[in-house]
């Protein structure tokens, strides 16, 4: 039996960031991941990461929280949204101080660009590989704090005693053995479950089996990448255009949606047309 203070299941951006925070505070931390952390799906997040730094236009965490609640169709946990948006500027600076190579403005400050659903240009980015760059920054911090990584270990069960998490059972994919890893605290960071949909832009590993097996999903709709219809509708493309015309050619007729809307609204508009009987062979989204 293996013992740690904290065990984090998942080595994506969420899992590695949680592990580093606990390790910085002196805990003995381990990550259990079915793949090498740096190969986690987070590496696909190319567009950027939002924080109300206000480097290119006025912005506040309150505005960020409002846009986030609205972007979630008001289904998101608003206390969690508020906490995340308040903390976001500190998190970006934390990453920058640990060597994360963000793109910059000519005066040296962190660059920020417009992104879908945001009322202000608040997306920090590293060219078009933001997720990958942050994964590598966090991996360096794992090495620095000597966080133990159980790589290619598939978590098959959570251990719970009297309602309290006490560790995990993990399958070592290299030798086929099962390991019991006990911990005082267990953090679930197993990512999304986009792969349960027939079509998705999520990585093949995004099956989120741990939460599914343990009934920990709140709203399955949040598991899918919102920009997906048959191809990814990219937030960056949607929000870069000042006047947006989404022409959904439905049975020869055109459907127009104008405004700085989030991509889930673009998709909803198209889906509504299809539900109403249209059978489009092709849908063209014209961004001007
Ligand atoms: C195409 C695309 C583009 C995106 N672009 C952006 C963007 O620009 N900006 C943005 O903010 N967000 C973006 N997102 C969303 C973002 O990528 C995800 O929300 C984020 O990466 C999730 O991080 P995570 O750490 O929770 O999960 P992941 O990175 O998916 O990591 C999950 C981890 O859990 C581990 N794991 C899972 N199950 C098990 C198991 N049973 N046992 C052991 N380990 C397990 C995996 O090995 C992995 O290490 C995008 C998503 C997609 C699909």
What this model shows, in words?
- This protein has 288 residues and is an alpha/beta fold.
- The chain folds into 3 domains: 2-40 and 142-223, FAD/NAD(P)-binding domain, CATH 3.50.50.60; 47-128, no CATH class; 235-287, no CATH class.
- It is 28% helix and 21% strand.
- It has 7 helices and 12 strands.
- The strands form 4 sheets. A 6-stranded mixed beta sheet has the order 5-2-1-8-7-6. A two-stranded antiparallel ribbon has the order 3-4.
- Strand 10 (248-250) and strand 11 form a beta hairpin.
- Helix 1 runs parallel beside helix 4 and helix 2 crosses helix 3 (78-97).
- The chain binds flavin-adenine dinucleotide.
- Flavin-adenine dinucleotide binds at residues 9-15, 32-35, 37, 40-42, 44-49, 131, 154-155, 189-191, 201-202, 205-206, 209-210, 225, 232.
- Flavin-adenine dinucleotide binds next to helix 1, strand 2, strand 6 and helix 5.
Q: What does the secondary structure layout of this molecule look like, with pairings?
A:
Blueprint: E1 2-9, H1 13-24, E2 29-33, E3 49-50, H2 61-71, H3 78-97, E4 123-124, H4 130-144, E5 148-151, E6 153-161, E7 164-172, E8 178-188, H5 209-213, H6 235-240, E9 244-245, E10 248-250, E11 253-255, H7 263-275, E12 286-287
Parallel strand pairs: 1-2, 1-8, 2-5
Antiparallel strand pairs: 3-4, 6-7, 7-8, 9-12, 10-11
Helix pairs in contact: 1-4, 2-3
Flavin-adenine dinucleotide binds next to helix 1, strand 2, strand 6 and helix 5.
């Amino acid at each position: 039996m293996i013992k740690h203070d904290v065990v984090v299941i998942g080595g994506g951006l969420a899992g590695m960031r949680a592990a580093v925070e606990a390790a910085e505070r002196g805990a003995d931390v381990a990550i259990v991941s079915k793949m090498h952390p740096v190969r986690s799906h987070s590496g696909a997040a190319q567009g950027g990461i939002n924080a109300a730094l206000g480097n290119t236009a006025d912005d506040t965490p309150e505005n960020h929280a409002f846009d986030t609640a609205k972007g979630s169709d008001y289904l998101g946990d608003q206390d969690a949204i508020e906490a995340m948006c308040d903390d976001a500027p500190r998190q970006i600076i934390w990453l920058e101080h640990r060597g994360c190579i963000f793109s910059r403005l000519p005066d040296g400050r962190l660059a920020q660009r417009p992104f879908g659903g945001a009322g202000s240009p608040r997306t920090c980015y590293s060219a078009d590989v933001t997720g990958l760059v942050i994964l590598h920054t966090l991996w360096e911090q794992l090495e620095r704090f000597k966080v133990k990584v159980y790589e290619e270990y598939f978590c098959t069960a959570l251990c719970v005693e009297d309602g309290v998490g006490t560790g995990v059972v993990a399958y070592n994919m290299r030798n086929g053995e099962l390991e019991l890893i006990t911990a005082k605290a267990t953090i679930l960071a197993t990512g999304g479950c986009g792969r349960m949909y027939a079509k998705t832009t999520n990585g093949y590993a995004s099956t989120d089996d741990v939460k599914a097996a343990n009934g920990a999903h709140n709203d399955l709709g949040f598991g899918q990448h919102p920009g997906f219809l048959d191809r990814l509708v990219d937030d960056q493309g949607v929000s870069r255009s000042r006047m947006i015309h989404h022409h959904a050619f439905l049975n020869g007729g055109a459907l127009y949606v104008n405004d700085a809307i989030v991509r889930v609204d673009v998709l909803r508009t198209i889906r509504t047309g299809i539900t109403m009987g249209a059978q489009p062979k092709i849908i063209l989204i014209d961004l001007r």
